[in-house]
Design brief:
globular; 4-stranded antiparallel beta sheet; 7-stranded antiparallel beta sheet; Protein Transport Mog1p, Chain A; alpha+beta
């Protein structure tokens, strides 16, 4: 009986963390900043320091190198490689984003805009992430390497805030991986996603 109770509590805590992360992602779109309003000559280059889940086994790393990536405005942006060993994935994110890892038992990270902290992208991995019950026109097929994924296009019933959720099952870890957010930065990060 204790074993079943433990599994129920574990499942409910993971589900609660996922719901909180999805709600944060939905709210981030309500306060988007127009990309043309952002300064293009920002000299400050901040390299985020990831938080580890435990001191013995680091769950992620942030590369020390950056590479230029062209943006829609034609200005080159530096990108940084983020690797999460527990989720067994890596992706790149622009230098306009800061990363912080989950301080709870939930695996993953939050990528926040440096200019608007409420604008964020959420990454998590766990067993059995529920898929949003959407119609076929709001679900897009997506490839992460050789793995088939689904990109769910959703919106808040309360205020219409848009949110996308990319979900797939990792072939090695058998964990579901979710990248949730919206906009150009989300699209670029989703396209850069690689399985380790």
């Amino acid at each position: 009986m204790l074993k079943n109770t433990y599994y129920l509590i574990l499942f409910l805590s993971v589900l609660a963390a996922l719901v909180v992360g999805l709600n944060i992602g939905k709210k981030m779109q309500g306060q988007n900043i127009n990309a043309q309003q952002l300064p293009t000559n920002n000299k400050q280059d901040i390299t985020p320091t990831p938080l580890n889940f435990s001191e013995d086994t680091p769950s992620s790393s942030v590369s020390t190198f950056t590479k230029p990536a062209a943006s829609n405005s034609g200005v080159l942006q530096k990108t940084t490689l983020y690797t999460n060993t527990q989720c067994a994935i890596s992706l790149t994110y622009p230098d306009t984003v800061a990363v912080s890892e989950s301080a709870t038992q939930t695996l993953g990270a939050v990528f926040r805009s440096k200019t608007n902290p409420s604008d964020m992208i959420v990454l998590t991995c766990q067993k059995e992430i529920p898929r949003p019950p959407l119609t076929a026109e709001n679900i897009e097929n997506f490839q992460v390497g050789t793995v088939a994924a689904k990109l769910y296009h959703d919106g808040s019933a309360k205020d219409g805030t848009k949110m996308d959720a990319l979900i797939f099952t990792h072939p090695k870890t058998k964990l579901d991986v979710l990248l949730g957010g919206y906009g150009e930065t989300f699209d670029k990060m989703a396209k850069s996603l690689k399985i380790q």
